[in-house]
Amino acid sequence: MKFGIGQPLTRVEDSRLLTGNGLYNDDISFENQAYMYVLRSPHANAKILDINLSETLGTSGLLKIINWKDIKELSINNMRTTFLVKNRDGNEMIDTPRHILAKNNVRYVGDPILAIIAESLEIAESVAENIVINYEEYESVTNISNAIKNNIISVRDEVSNNTCFDWELGDKENTLKEINSSTHKINIQLINNRLVPNPMECRSTIGIYDENNDEYTLYCSSQGVHSLKRKLSSILNVNENKVHVITKDVGGGFGMKIFNYPEYILSLAASNIVRRPVKWKASRTESFLSDIHGRDHFSKATLGIDKNFKFKALMVETLANMGAYMSDFAVFIPTYAGTGMLTGCYDIKKAYANVKGVYTNTSPTDAYRGAGRPEASYLIERLVDKSAKELGISPIKIREINLIDKSQMPYRTALGHTYDSGDFKKNLRDAVNVSQLNKFENRRKESLEKGYLRGIGVSTYIEACGGGGPEFANVSVGKNGNITVKIGTQSNGQGHETSYGQIVSEILGVDISLIQVVQGNSKEIEKGSGTGGSRSTPVGGSALKVATENLIKKIKILLSEKFSINPLSIYYNQGTFNFNDKSLTLAEISNLFSSYNAHLEEDGIWTPIQGTFTYPNGTHICELEINKETGKVSILAYYVVDDFGKVINPLLLEGQVHGGIVQGIGQALFEETLYDENGQLISGSLMDYAIPRASDVPNFSFSYNEIFCKNNLLGVKGAGEAGAIGAPPAVINAVCNALNIAHVDMPAKPEKLWKIINEKKD
Asked: Which residues contact 610 (CB under 8 A, 6 or more apart)?
């Protein structure tokens, strides 16, 4: 079909977004709207001794200064994480709630203390400058390795040694046995650097309290309104039907906009207190301080290998930085989400991992594009490359020996996942061929003659995604034959209006211009689980398929009842229902039944089978040069061969992969979140925190193998996170290859590489 599944359509939403006709949260304003400014802690670890507001008294335009007592008087609960695990000793981990506003202590720079409500943002900011807070400062700790040492600074008194959980997965006894009996034991320790998400659109909210109906409405930039609605109602201590969440266009999320934040509660509480709509928006610097960060792991791992270079067992120990508070899914990310994927695409029979969650005086961490899977992929792919170097075998050959063969599918891993489909070896072969790896040494010599060190790096990856809760879709027909889709996911840049439109166009056989997609309104859309973990098309698309097919069935039944015919004698094709000598379009049918109050709409729900996921996979190859005089890295070529199952739109797919690769390159070469010894964020702006630019990346070579997923109705596997998973190890493997070294931690900045080059000279 012209507009159906598999067609490379340009995004239908782009004409609106690129001409300034998008509607982002900060574009929305209400009559009689007030403004909120959040006063934050300048200290990483301190006790609040007193707050002096005398200089603010009588300030024109000041409406209210809200503190923790005001929040308590509204019977608002503390924030809690949504996921807890059992420690390896069998005990439940200790839950440590978070105050919406700091009560007695602040635990990181940026911790909210007061919410200032005024007639304008400028007034609120000026009031903040006149507030004097006296603190008793304490020492702080930001490094996870230091945080777990005995007698070090305590971030949370509820736990010992700042360890909030001590969790394990796998078969420890037999894994140790296999490693100890292995011919070769390869060790690695590495850092997965902390990242600031930095979406183009900073977070913002408008909170509205309707005192007549005792209802709250939150406008915010999110990745799913229904999960926020549930969290907000629980914290506000009201029934879910008293809370509504609305999200319009979203300028990027990368995971960090699916969580609940103190500012969301504050804007609603403030509206209740001042009885006016209250608007808040973060500046870019405020976003650096207050947005949920990603990654920040320190890991040690050992891979046991036999005399034939076959992997036998893997053992991993990881410290995961939680920051000062546990965010919504913070515990899930380094445990089940990431650790379960540590064996990657390899046939490793035994594996064991121990993960400790650690509190530090830093911003909380949680899911960031890939959410645990990049951390796992980076560890195993660096370990595999280091193994190849130490054993004197090529990185390609060691992978060919150990990759799971397609004949082994479905394959159950040592850590509990069951891969339903995939041909990992074909992806590798295709990537090797397209990159002309066999001619690389000639290219290396040419670079060396010009004063550059050339390297090439390969990584294979696999991720588990497309899971989570059920997804809901509703499809209806209007009088003019237009189709309205309501669905519980939320686009934050992926192109849902296009991909969902193509699914409906394929099934109904109608022009995509007739299809409107509605997301992000908990009043209009009954339920949903939101967007995250590359689940929108695998789960949301499956729900949409069910709803669209249910609509066709319903119309056939209505026609059979009206015309007294067997519904099996009615045929649907390309937008028309055919029976006897009649042929009726969707518009004609809609008008026909409008007088009967028969609504031409149907729902669809799709729930992933518990414990099953989709498993996108592929191979990345990065080729780069390093300037011997400066240490600067230039990526010359980048090749990726992926398997995303059935492809809905090749053009959208490639765009998602490109974006993910760029973010992965950013982590590998540029991005680094740094705190000083006092817990101050010293990479707190785009002047100090480097993100990749267009000039830092090459044109990408992208191709794919369609091996259909067996765990959803469309055969799709999801693609939004894949590039960010495969890229970091491919880039660092290439850097290590160029420098002929065993390992270098991310980010591989010029100064770091320059030092390595000059040390090797000595």
From this structure: none
H/E segment holding residue 683: none
110-148: burial string, b at 16+ Cβ within 10 Å, e else: bbbbbbbbbbebebbebbbeebebebeebebbbbbeebb
pLDDT over 90 (residue 393): yes
The tokens for 689 are 């925190």
**Which pLDDT score, from 0 to 100, does residue 594 have?**
82
Q: Tell whether the model's pLDDT for residue 94 goes beyond 80.
A: yes
Average pLDDT over every residue of 501-517: 97
Round to the nearest angstrom and report the end-to-end CA distance of the chain: 65
From CA 267, how far away is CA 280, in angstroms rounded?
7
pLDDT category at 761 given cuts 50, 70, 90 is confident
Q: What is the pLDDT of residues 316-329, one digit of tens each?
A: 999 999 999 999 99
pLDDT tens profile 687-738: 999 999 999 999 999 999 999 999 999 999 999 999 999 999 999 999 999 9
User: Residue 744 — φ and ψ, nearest 5°?
Assistant: -145, 135
- Determine how β-strand 576-579 pairs with β-strand 582-585: antiparallel
Q: Is the pLDDT of residue 286 over 90?
A: yes
Is 80 exceeded by the pLDDT of residue 87?
yes
Distance CA 311, CA 435 (A): 26
> Using CB atoms within 10 A of its CB, is residue 269 exposed (0-12), middle (13-18) or buried (19+)?
buried
Q: In what order do the strands lie in the sheet with 311-323?
A: 163-170, 350-359, 311-323, 297-305, 184-192
Spatial strand order in the sheet of 576-579: 571-573, 576-579, 582-585
The gap from C-alpha 602 to its chain's centroid, in whole angstroms, comes to 31
Is the residue at 183 inside a domain? no
Look at the block and give the residue holding tokens 């009726």.
584
pLDDT at 610 over 90: no
Q: Are strands 418-419 and 411-412 parallel, antiparallel or unpaired?
A: antiparallel
- Of 393, 447, 399, the C-alpha closest to 424 is 399
Domain presence at residue 178: no
Question: Sheet holding 105-106: strands in order across?
Answer: 105-106, 46-52, 132-137
Q: Are 698 and 596 in contact (CB under 8 A)?
A: no
Cα separation, 266 vs 235, in Å, equals 11
CATH of the domain at 448: 3.30.365.10
In this structure, are strands 582-585 and 411-412 parallel, antiparallel, or unpaired? Answer: unpaired
- Which domain range does residue 523 map to? 467-606
Where among 606, 631, 652 does a domain terminate? 606
